[in-house]
């Protein structure tokens, strides 16, 4: 029994060690990956439920690891936040997305009014230099601020409520669009939501998934849409996968949709082919 106990201990320690080593390797790999251009952005179209036109894209981070292949953000964003690498990564995303949208506007007439959304993580949002960073990138590239939208999760905004108002209003008054992301997963109420300068509210995928399951779920989404509209915000539904969901959302007055029903995230080459074509899906 003693032997078995010791073996169990060994296995346990070994596993913990493996986990720690794996985490350390992932972090140093990401550090190298940023320098070696292993990161890139895919772009998922955001679609007007009324006009059926694409009104913008959300930039989604991808990492092509030399040994592991494609690594999704769910596997490294948290680590980047914890290690502080998110600052470098986040700044890279800002300049890469702005550079790309600027290129599309220059090349394609139908791209003039597109807004590219970028995701800003909680830790990134705690850095007050973020605002100057975004604004100076726009200036450097001579990119109109209306072509950029930032998505910040409900939780990230509420956790930093004090500085959020000031940061967001600086961005908004410069003309950058501001969206609250993953709405419904946090704890905001109508009264604290109205304090924040916002343009758009994105309903979390979990609510969209449940929408066809019961009438109560429809009522919840309806309440969120009404809340947003009462605050003067546009609404985007994320993770729209079926025509049934699309119809329900359109009937409730939801302006925009994003999801596999319309398109999966596209590569830059696919976006360019799309813009070169007729700008409809
Ligand atoms: P998110 O901001 O909620 O982004 C939407 C996620 O849903 C994306 O996953 C997208 O590919 C996926 N998606 C889109 N349509 C559908 C659909 O119809 N069905 C389903 N099941 N999923 C759909 P992805 O690309 O894996 O990104 C995951 C998360 O990683 C994002 O969630 C965001 O929180 C984070 N992320 C991505 N790019 C960045 C970035 O540049 N910076 C930061 N800080 N976070 C990022
Ligand atoms: Ca997002
Ligand atoms: Ca989400
Ligand atoms: Ca999110």
TrEMBL record:
Determine the domain of life of the protein's source: Bacteria
Q: Where is the EAL domain?
A: 23-279
What name does this protein carry? PAS domain S-box-containing protein/diguanylate cyclase (GGDEF) domain-containing protein
| Organism, scientific name | Desulfovibrio gilichinskyi
């Amino acid at each position: 029994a003693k032997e078995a106990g010791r073996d169990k201990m060994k296995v346990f320690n070994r596993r913990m060690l493996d986990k720690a080593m794996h985490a350390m390797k992932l972090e140093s790999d990401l550090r190298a990956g940023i320098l070696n251009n292993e990161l890139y952005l895919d772009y998922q179209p955001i679609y007007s439920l009324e006009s059926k036109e694409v009104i913008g894209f959300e930039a989604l981070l991808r990492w092509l690891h030399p040994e592991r292949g494609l690594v999704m953000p769910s596997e490294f964003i948290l680590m980047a936040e914890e290690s502080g690498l998110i600052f470098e990564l986040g700044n890279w995303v800002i300049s890469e997305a702005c550079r790309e949208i600027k290129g599309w506007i220059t090349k394609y007439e139908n791209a003039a009014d597109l807004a590219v959304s970028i995701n800003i993580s909680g830790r990134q949002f705690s850095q007050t230099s973020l605002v100057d960073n975004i604004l100076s990138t726009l200036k450097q590239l001579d990119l109109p601020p209306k072509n950029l939208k930032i998505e910040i999760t409900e939780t990230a905004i509420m956790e930093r409520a004090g500085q959020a108002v000031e940061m967001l209003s600086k961005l908004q008054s410069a003309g950058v669009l501001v969206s609250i992301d993953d709405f419904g997963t946090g704890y905001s109420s109508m009264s604290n939501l109205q304090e924040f300068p916002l343009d758009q509210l994105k309903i979390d995928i979990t609510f969209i998934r449940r929408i066809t399951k019961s009438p109560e779920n429809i009522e919840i989404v309806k309440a969120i849409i009404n809340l947003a509209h009462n605050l003067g915000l546009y609404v985007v539904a994320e993770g729209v996968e079926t025509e049934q969901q699309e119809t329900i959302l359109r009937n409730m007055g939801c302006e925009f949709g994003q999801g596999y029903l319309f398109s999966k995230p596209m590569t830059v080459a696919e976006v360019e082919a799309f813009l070169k074509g007729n700008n409809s899906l």
